[in-house]
Amino acid sequence: MRPGQIIVLATPVFFLLIAIEFAVGRARARRGTGRDTYRLADALNSIGLGMLSQISAVLTGLLRIGIYSAVYSAVALFPLEAAKEFWTTWYGWLLALVFYDFCYYWLHRMGHESAVLWAAHVVHHQSQHYNLSTALRQTSSGALFSWIFYLPMAVAGVPPLVFGVVALIDLLYQFWVHTEQVGKLGWFDRWFCSPSNHRVHHAVNDNYLDRNYGGILIVWDRMFGTFREEDERCVYGTRGELRSWDPLWANAEVYWALARDSWHAKSWADKLRVWLKPPGWRPADVAARFPKPLFDIAKVTRYEPEVSLGVQWFAGLQFLLLVGCAVVFLWFSDVMPLPQAAVWLAALTASLWAIGGVLQGRLSVTEVLFIEAAALATASAALGIGWLHLVFKPLALAIAIFFAARRAMAAGTVTRFDGLLLTGLAASLAGDVLLMGPATLFVPGLVAFLLAHLAYIALFSMGVGMFPRRGVLAATLLIGAGMYAFLWLGGLPAALRIPVAAYVVVIACMAAQAIGRAAVLHATDPSARWVAVGACFFMLSDSLLATNRFVTPLPLASLWVLGTYYAAQMLIVRNARPKG
User: Fold this and answer.
1) In terms of residue numbers, what domain contains 567?
2) Is residue 340 part of a domain?
3) Number of domains in the chain
4) pLDDT (average), residues 193-208
């Protein structure tokens, strides 16, 4: 059985145990003998990060297993056959598990003592609650460096199969220790990682910080001086609080902070030290210029943005659908071609991000539906699932039109600005439908999008005039001319040269108008810059489409063409608003 299938089979067990823990916590809270440790948004965020970790591991896992296998084959200290015979005995398996746990201890410890490793591991600690869903909260970038700590096993001749199995056992064991519903366990706590021991590890209390790293055995911590017994109430989370349900930001926040500090550091040595020193270390000059408040545990508050019960139900149901999709993906992932896996990874990631956005109040339900429809339209086109594409490509723009119309009506009146935005979206929808048809409809589809861009030009000129930054117009026209020359030399059919030339001029003008508008309104309307970014995405999408159609086929062309196209439409429809 393949690793992905083992995770799938374990998933119902995970959810059953989560349900039992939730019920026990609720019952104890009602009796006053305990507390409910679950909040919907936090649990969905934790489980979603686990899903993201598992589906991304289809790609990143190759790094860990590939390097391990290469080292095992090239530099193992013992003859491979003799080593395999030893490590596959019952005592060999047991020793391999202990060996793995020892390596894991040092990986885990260094994950708290080196900033670049903490940047990956931090994901597991971000939740301010401690329950079984927290166990599933895993990083998507850990494979970048974690393989280094397991190379001693490869050198010792532990076969890749044995390594993979004991790694899975070590990981699965750690699930049950993430709970507040199990107290101290006496002698067991002295030898093994237990709920009590691991609660200490997740706490930000001064006495608990950076303690109890063991995965299965806690004896490593006792041997190397990192053990701490639970003797006061734990406060969970991280000292640099995440305060977000965004799964992408959860994975990127520390990397971004390190990159920013490294960029601002004056000394080249400090630029490197930022990544290698313990988390929280900052060069003196950077700390002076960009001070951060000291951590005060008394001021810690839980991040729980208020959303309506209806939004919570919507997010929960959408999340269940995503879990089903992820389960199907993981079942087949080990035999799925990498390009196909990458497409589904992108679609699932976009949907998880959208659900985080609606629970945080950053996105509306309609915007989430648009993102999900766009993700399915893009994935179905890239994978050649024709019937699915026929449904979701027009549906995505129809949802965008509904969003813009509903927003306009909610404001009390449909203005000229709203009319132009709706015209641009409607023309884009017409272009989408036409371009899904036979090749004879390419020019009508081109005309529809040309009309959409003309509507956007008129929209972006309101309140700022036509092309307020002439230098930007010259630049976008020059880029357009270069693209047109590239298409001409690449084999653009003679019959299409005039229509394509007109289209290139119009989209270059649209981008220039959006960028110029952002330059004029940068102080009064910061969202105008996102509209400009959307216009640039539009230009990029069309360039990719034309390159793929007329010059040379691009790998996963639909993923890049439609991904940038829907990003453009989302940025425009969400951020375009009248001046003042």
Assistant:
1) 364-575
2) no
3) 2
4) 97
